[in-house]
Design brief:
This protein is mainly beta. The protein contains six helices and 32 strands.
């Protein structure tokens, strides 16, 4: 089997695919591995030397002064390199992932090749208490479908006002607005825009005169380059055809300059049964955004999956699911594609809260409400004590965290609940504990998520949950330690920055390897300085310093050796 390699090597040398063969020969014959000669010809950045050649150069199979006349030809060296390369590459080896200088959260296994003695761990946020009560005559105990936006120094909140358990699209549904300067303390301003119960002294921005849009009005800040100022805010809202319910014919597109005064982008719905061809469907929140990562608008809509016992004829299935549509202009949308994920049984996902993470927009976070029907936790006596509608006592719901890196795939890395329901019967009723769309920064090292509590009860309100920046999940090592190695990565920058925490006896060391998994000189584990502490961003160092600039643009692997520590995120800069 050697002859094909000889032929391939001869062709590579003759055609120049291995670079300047005369320079390569000079570097090999002069023992100039790592010299300016090798640097200048791309040795260190692997443009001309395959990793097998590199291993030969390091192994001592060559020596200074080795020439063709001494009996070892360059072709022989290349053949040995190719053989070594082929033997080193596993059938499952990956192409290098270009990550540039972007922040990478460890919320999935996308960048991880192997783990030993460590595990991916979900990090639930901390309950910081109520921040907004749905206690006005026009919002009330059935308020919900909340969105929070960070707009420069301002925080804006949008939610459905609904004081009674009426049908979707009923006259009592409104879109309400609240605002904050810090994301912690919220107020409902008197906007004077819409008359409710004979008064304009309220925080309502839309009512049913716009159609059944307030039922699930879901806004976002449009980050598309060149977006007109009067369309800086966009939203989707409205209802598909539903038996006995008011319909807008699908989802309507709206735009706004200030996030308070809205107008339709066109008179008719933009996402209809032409996009999702079923006879009937209802609508939960339908989050949309401009994806710079995918260079299009993306929207997530309520779809249905058939669990094999489809009794909802014309709806597409019994399981509430998520579909995705895309657009270049926010008016013309693609046919729906079903989102998919593996390793988790079918579950009812009641809202589609998927949006780009604000510090790493190539990663989409899905903060969804998982609901289990006919799983009553509260008793009839507790229902009476709480003062809630008994129709909402038979089901239970909780937040789950789902991620995506674009396309039609979700990752259910963490199938368990993101936030467990609290102590007390009031936390275990139907449609309580629905998470709010978007996580927003609320401090230098802090960000906040929000969850609705006590749905259908007199005390219906919103709770803020605190997380440290970027710390949604981590690779966790316990006392006995462990390690993980990334897939080959191509980065830009000079420094590797970690978001981490350790115990006093714990620590993290980082080895930089070539794409084949061999430690690079100066960046081996024995050269690595141990990192101990708790910081959002700290540069990794080795005995020779922390500059990785000469490896920028080169496929490398990172090997993290950890003890009693968590690594939440990393980036190059």
């Amino acid at each position: 089997m050697l002859f094909p390699f000889l032929a391939a090597a001869d062709f590579a040398l003759r055609s120049g695919l291995l670079g300047n063969s005369s320079v390569v020969a000079r570097c090999v014959s002069s023992g100039m591995e790592g010299s300016p000669c090798a640097h200048a010809q791309g040795y260190e950045n692997r443009r001309f030397f395959p990793s097998g050649t590199k291993r030969i150069l390091r192994s001592g199979l060559h020596r200074p002064g080795l020439t063709i006349q001494r009996g070892v030809t360059l072709l022989g060296v290349v053949v040995l390199a190719l053989v070594a390369e082929v033997s080193a590459v596993s059938p499952t080896s990956q192409s290098a992932l270009a990550i540039g200088d972007r922040l990478e959260l460890l919320v999935d296994r996308h960048l991880i090749d192997r783990m030993d003695g460590v595990e991916l761990r979900l990090n639930p946020p901390v309950d910081m208490g109520p921040v907004l009560a749905f206690d006005a005559p026009w919002d009330g105990r059935f308020s919900g479908y909340v969105t929070v936006l960070k707009d420069g120094p301002a925080y804006r909140m949008y939610y459905r006002g609904k004081p009674a358990p009426t049908q979707d699209g009923s006259d009592d549904e409104t879109t309400c607005y609240a605002e904050s300067t810090d994301g912690v303390h919220w107020r409902k301003p008197n906007l004077g825009l819409v008359e409710v119960n004979g008064s304009r002294e309220n925080n309502v921005i839309l009512d049913q005169k716009a159609g059944p849009i307030p039922h699930n009005f879901t806004p976002f800040l449009d980050t598309r380059p060149g977006v007109p100022a009067d369309e800086r805010f966009k939203a989707l809202g409205g209802l598909f055809d539903m038996a006995g319910h008011r319909s807008s014919g699908g989802l309507v597109a709206l735009v706004s300059a200030d996030g308070i005064r809205w107008r339709r982008l066109q008179p008719t719905a933009v996402i209809t049964t032409k996009n999702y061809p079923v006879q009937f469907t209802d609508a939960t929140m339908s989050p949309a955004f401009w994806s710079e990562h995918e260079r299009c608008y993306v929207a997530f809509i309520r779809t249905w999956k058939d669990d094999g016992t489809n009794t909802r004829v014309g709806w597409g299935g019994n399981i509430r699911w998520v579909g995705r549509v895309t657009s270049q202009d926010f008016v013309h949308w693609s046919k729906v594609e079903m989102m998919e994920f593996s390793n988790v049984p079918l579950e009812q996902l009641y809202n589609n809260n998927t949006s780009p993470y604000f510090r790493a927009p190539h990663i989409y976070l899905g903060l969804m409400g998982r609901i289990v029907f006919n799983r009553p936790v509260v008793t009839a006596a507790e229902v009476a004590r709480i003062g809630m509608d008994a129709r909402y006592s038979h089901d239970s719901s909780e937040p789950v965290l789902i991620t995506s890196r674009g396309g039609t795939r979700y990752d259910r890395t963490f199938p368990e609940a993101w936030i467990r329901n609290g102590i007390g019967a009031e936390h275990w009723t139907s449609r309580s504990n629905y998470p709010v769309l978007n996580i927003v920064p609320t401090g230098p090292n802090e960000m906040s998520a929000y969850v609705q509590h006590s749905y259908g009860q007199p005390g219906c309100h919103l709770v803020r949950y605190k997380l440290e920046t970027d710390r949604l999940a981590s690779v966790n090592a316990r006392f006995n330690g462990g390690e993980f190695v990334t897939k080959p990565l191509i980065f830009t920058g000079k420094n590797l920055l970690l978001n981490f925490s350790t115990s006093v006896v714990g620590g993290i060391r980082v080895e930089v390897q070539d794409a084949a998994g061999m430690a690079l000189p100066g960046y081996a584990l024995s050269d690595a300085l141990e990192i101990v502490g708790n910081e959002i961003e700290r540069a990794v160092g080795w005995k020779g310093g922390n500059d990785l600039g000469r490896l920028s643009g080169v496929p490398v692997r990172l090997r993290f050796v950890m003890k009693e520590s968590d690594l939440y995120a990393f980036r190059f800069k």
